[in-house]
Amino acid sequence: MLNQIKGLHHVTSLASSASRNNAFFTDALGLRRVKKTVNFDAPDVYHLYYGDAQGTPGSVMTYFPFPQAARGRPGTGEVGRTSFSVPEGSLDAWADRLSTFETAGLSRDTRFGQDRVLFDGPDGDAFALIATRDDERAPWTGNGVNEDMAIRGFHSADMRLRDAGASAELLRFMGYEETGKDGDVTRFEVPGGNGADAIDIETLPGAAHAAQGAGSVHHIAFAVENRARQLEVREALIDTGHAVTPVIDRDYFWAIYFRTPGGVLFEVATNEPGFDIDEDTAHLGEALKLPSQHAHLRDKLERILEPIQ
């Protein structure tokens, strides 16, 4: 069993409009845009990162906004909902705030004894705010959301699967422990994690398979401290039969990827070097930053990429 993984690093999804996506995460949810860059494989598409003041692993939601992309179809074989941790006692304020932004899909429920506000993003992306006790992570409060309610980072991600067996075994191998069941949902948590510690598996044996599009999660990334720990994880996964990519330099972290038995794409990402490697912390996310292989495209990209504030 692995002990290098310390919870979620980031969650990456697809969108249909960069400006609408940016407004939702910075204005409605009050997160900081910590990086404005481009998709390594499609440089005419942004890669936008939102999180806390430094883009701390475990707080960062990222997006590839493909202009006018068709919506995805929810189903199995995907991450169906991404949940953020907020302080206990703040859900009424959040429900009021999200209503003022005309947020779709607002509802309330309880899972594993924790109260939640459920809501949809601009492309039908499914989110939750979970009232969490004693989450000591420092929030970003620069966008009009006060400290008493501000998002602390991720709480968990939901995997929707027809059969949970093989994916549950994989999570156990990755260091997660089963900590409870609530209906058809099983929770797994990594001990001693970074706060973004939980994965919920929802078993839906009769549901159709998801079709990816705007509003779909592309992949979820798990955090390791550094490249040495990442190589240990990579070797262990390969030894157990997983097809794992070589290490890929993503400028702000190093990444490896593999497909889970349930169809969800997993990444293991390093906490190093971080988002301040090419920008001062006070100005994260303001300028368009380009990977070196696309630097020669700057003039063209600045003309064609959708303007965002």
TrEMBL record:
Matching entries from InterPro entries are given as: Extradiol_RC_dioxygenase, Glyas_Bleomycin-R_OHBP_Dase, Glyas_Fos-R_dOase_dom, VOC_core
Organism superkingdom? Bacteria
The record places domain VOC at 7-132, 153-271
Question: What Pfam families has UniProt attached to this entry?
Answer: Glyoxalase
Name of protein: Glyoxalase family protein
Provide the species name.
Silicimonas algicola
